[in-house]
Design brief:
Helices cover 38% and strands 22% of the residues. With 197 residues, it is α/β, with parallel strands linked by helices. It has a single domain, classed as Formyl transferase, N-terminal domain (Rossmann fold, 3-Layer(aba) Sandwich), CATH 3.40.50. β1, α1 and β2 form a beta-alpha-beta unit.
Length: 197
Amino acid sequence: MLSLLVLISGGGSNLRALLEASSDPGYPARVIAVGSDTEADGLAHAEEFQIPSFTVLPTAFESRAAWGDELLAQIDRWSPDLVVCAGFMRILPPAVVTALAPRIINTHPALLPAFPGAHAVRDALAAGARTTGVTVHVIDEGVDTGPVIVQREIAVLPGDTEHELHERIKVVERELLVQAVRDIAEGLVDLKETAAR
């Protein structure tokens, strides 16, 4: 059974998808803890499913590195097999990435390497893209530059607003994340091999 620690910053829809999946006895992974860098609304999902949670606020620390050290200490308390950044909107300090890689993954609402960063959906629309999508990737020290585990395309429809497109992306993102975690748990995806590409 693969143990998961999920990091969030917002509403936690990807977290909820993992919590619902892992409540099925046939799913080969379990969420053991949830962490956040804000007083995120999504922490309510952890509470509902009786999963322990913690918050490490960057504003409580003198430096990004000090914040990262505390975040890593909180993660290490749980010794998870896999850390999943699911809507975690902060770039991790290099020391955190080095300590956890390659067992730390992220979802991104675009077909990387296209449209990295925090405004991927808006950027895809601004560029006139006809397709975008979802990527699940291993986190490295760059911004959305880590090795790709899996991707799925989504059509950009005529007249799409950022909100409409993002909502369609989120549906696929949840499905793809749940499947990617299953594939990792079942050995169909080797993170070390993926990271070495």
